[in-house]
Amino acid sequence: MVKESINEYVPIHTILSAEQAKKILEKLSLKAENLPKLLSSDPQAIYIKAQPGDIVEVKRNDYGKEYLYYRFVIEG
């Protein structure tokens, strides 16, 4: 599991394990393909070595409150 960011202005991106991804998809009642997409050519995806098919958790901090977003990595 990689928890990194290119710099302080980019939210933390974490590649989820298969088990973590399964739990999140069940909780949200979604298929991975229904999540917002993240291109494998995106600089942050390259930095964390995300591969097509991975699900990435994005932690954003907005005025002291943390929000979690999930994105599905696709070829591109």
Per CATH, what is the topology? Eukaryotic RPB6 RNA polymerase subunit
Judging by the overall fold, what is the CATH architecture? Answer: Alpha-Beta Complex
- CA radius of gyration: 12 Å
Number of DSSP strand runs? 5
Q: What value does the average pLDDT take?
A: 90
Distance from first to last alpha carbon: 22 Å
Report the CATH superfamily: RPB5-like RNA polymerase subunit
Count of discrete structural domains: 1
Q: Can you put this structure into words, describing what you see?
A:
By secondary structure, this protein is an alpha+beta fold. The protein has one domain: Eukaryotic RPB6 RNA polymerase subunit (Alpha-Beta Complex), CATH 3.90.940. It has helices at 18-28, 43-48, and strands at residues 3-4, 12-15, 37-39, 55-62, 65-74. The protein has a 5-stranded mixed beta sheet with strand order 1-2-4-5-3. It is globular, with a radius of gyration of 12 Å. The protein starts with a strand and ends with a strand. The mean pLDDT is 90.
